């Protein structure tokens, strides 16, 4: 983080900036040095830059208490300790692969079946993406990625593989839809630049948009990659975060419906980091329809296996169908009500979000508040939000969004009370000193704009100083650590 590595002692890769994490992500620093705590630090910064699913942990904790034998470090489970500690086959425990395959089918509404023999383990979706890039592309080759996209892809797919990512520019005018035209423009540009395109990488449901891809869009993407004979990687790690209609449609569902396509080109990346809220367990999955990719990825997986202790615990948990059904439906309900509370309250002060029905975040539209409709203008507003409103949110530019003024705000990594404080701070900021004032949305927006412009101009000097320093944050940085 921000330090210069010794270029003589270390490799080019180690000293290069391929990981994208050398910039001083100020939002995280602001949070780390002054984290909010209801009692100990009520004026601290609230973390809204972290896509964590913490709303249903009570259910998981109850299950753990009721099933002590599933943890091998308990009196009830210790008899299994030796076997589990010794197991090291990189195929993984078969009970684990069966349970994960079953779970993947369940979170896709039981509409598709996954073959446990195609499940390859990896260290989170992070490891899965890198393995996919190694399997499918040579250094210099590229994947097309619709924008805005998860900033970690720049590290995961590119850093150690030498692969490039080419943005497919999507716009707010049609809700950031991934259109055939946008894909073709990006593909053509790559050809003109003599870059070999090996595939398209989509995230469905989307991080940061919280939207899902509709059937027509999925079909058109499949047709596109099939015609070009390139791969399609579908990151579906937010599959179970869909909390309202329409239902999630997995790429696997499209394939099962019988679309004409070379199945060898299709690969799904999954993990339990978001749907179950277990990013610490580092459970990632590659599910490929291509036998060679399955075999190669499995051999590579030796470099990033999931601990057998974790496999053992999760195979027991995920095989408990009744528990899993309850967890999936309860989690969706809690996400829905948190999303509703957040968007309704924002709406009252004239702030809108992109319409969404999935994910752990909202894509908040603050374009009207930018002094300058540029990335710099966005960063100035972002700093004001961190410094004055004391909320760490993530600017759209860190997701390669083509339009300044969008911000991702996470809402599932905190309790109800903290969420209320966060909302109060936004409302306070808009209405100070009389925050109870309720106005028609148009008027509210004007007031919010006027207030904000005043505040921006008051902190203008500070912004100028910051933006002129040599260590100015790259537009990609604040989110690199955020997930
Ligand atoms: C779209 C997407 N893919 C992959 C990841 C990495 O997930 P994991 O924790 O499983 O490595 C994230 C994390 O935020 C993500 O949002």
Automatic annotation (TrEMBL):
In this protein, which residues make up the domain named Aminotransferase class I/classII large?
46-426
Q: Name one GO molecular function term.
A: 1-aminocyclopropane-1-carboxylate synthase activity
Q: Which GO terms describe its biological process?
A: ethylene biosynthetic process
Q: Name one Pfam family in it.
A: Aminotran_1_2
Cofactor(s) listed? pyridoxal 5'-phosphate
| Record keywords | Ethylene biosynthesis, Lyase, Pyridoxal phosphate, S-adenosyl-L-methionine
Q: What class of enzyme is it?
A: lyase
Catalysed reactions listed for this entry: S-adenosyl-L-methionine = 1-aminocyclopropane-1-carboxylate + S-methyl-5'-thioadenosine + H(+)
Its Enzyme Commission number(s) read: 4.4.1.14
Q: SUPFAM superfamilies from the xrefs? A: PLP-dependent transferases (SSF53383)
Organism superkingdom: Eukaryota
Q: Which family does it belong to?
A: Belongs to the class-I pyridoxal-phosphate-dependent aminotransferase family.
Q: What is this protein called?
A: 1-aminocyclopropane-1-carboxylate synthase
Taxonomy of origin reads: Eukaryota, Viridiplantae, Streptophyta, Embryophyta, Tracheophyta
């Amino acid at each position: 983080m921000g330090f210069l590595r010794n270029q003589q002692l270390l490799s080019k890769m180690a000293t290069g900036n391929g990981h994208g994490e050398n910039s001083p992500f100020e939002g995280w620093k602001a949070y780390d040095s002054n984290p909010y705590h209801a009692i100990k630090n009520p004026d601290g910064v609230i973390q809204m830059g972290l896509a964590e699913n913490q709303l249903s942990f009570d259910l998981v904790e109850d299950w753990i208490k009721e099933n002590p034998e599933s943890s091998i470090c308990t009196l009830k489970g210790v008899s299994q300790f030796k076997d589990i500690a010794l197991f090291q086959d990189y195929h993984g425990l078969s009970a684990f692969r069966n349970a994960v395959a079953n779970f993947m089918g369940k979170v896709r509404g039981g509409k598709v079946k996954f073959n446990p023999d195609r499940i390859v383990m990896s260290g989170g979706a992070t490891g899965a993406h890198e393995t996919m890039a190694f399997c499918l592309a040579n250094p210099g080759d590229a994947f097309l990625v619709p924008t805005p996209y998860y900033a970690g892809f720049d590290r995961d797919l590119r850093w150690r593989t030498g692969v490039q990512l080419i943005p497919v520019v999507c716009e707010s005018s049609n809700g950031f839809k991934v259109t055939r035209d946008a894909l073709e423009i990006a593909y053509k540009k790559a050809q003109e630049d003599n870059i070999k395109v090996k595939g398209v990488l989509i995230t469905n449901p989307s991080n940061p948009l919280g939207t899902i891809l509709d059937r027509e869009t999925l079909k058109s993407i499949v047709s596109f990659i099939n015609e070009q004979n390139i791969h399609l990687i579908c990151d579906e790690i937010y599959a179970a975060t869909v909390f309202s209609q329409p239902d999630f449609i997995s790429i696997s569902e499209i394939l099962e419906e019988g679309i004409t396509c070379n199945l060898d080109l299709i690969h799904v990346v999954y993990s339990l980091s978001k749907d179950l809220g277990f990013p610490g367990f580092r459970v990632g999955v590659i599910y490929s329809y291509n036998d060679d990719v399955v075999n190669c990825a499995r051999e590579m997986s030796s470099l990033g296996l999931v601990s057998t202790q974790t496999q053992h615990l999760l195979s027991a948990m995920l095989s408990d169908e009744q528990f899993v059904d309850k967890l999936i439906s309860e989690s969706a309900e809690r996400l829905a009500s948190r999303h509703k509370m957040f968007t309704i309250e924002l709406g009252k002060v004239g702030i809108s979000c992109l319409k969404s029905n999935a994910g752990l975040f909202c894509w908040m539209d603050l374009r009207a508040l930018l002094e300058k409709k540029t990335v710099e203008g966005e960063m100035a507003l972002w700093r004001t939000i961190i410094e004055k409103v004391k909320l760490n949110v993530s600017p759209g530019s860190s997701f390669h969004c083509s339009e300044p003024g969008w911000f991702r705000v996470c809402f599932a990594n905190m309790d109800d009370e903290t969420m209320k404080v966060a909302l109060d701070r936004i409302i306070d900021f808009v209405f100070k000193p009389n925050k109870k004032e309720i106005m028609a949305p148009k008027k509210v927006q004007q007031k919010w704009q006027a207030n904000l412009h005043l505040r921006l101009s008051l902190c203008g000097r500070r912004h100028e100083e910051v933006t002129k320093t040599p260590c100015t944050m790259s537009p990609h940085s604040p989110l690199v650590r955020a997930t």
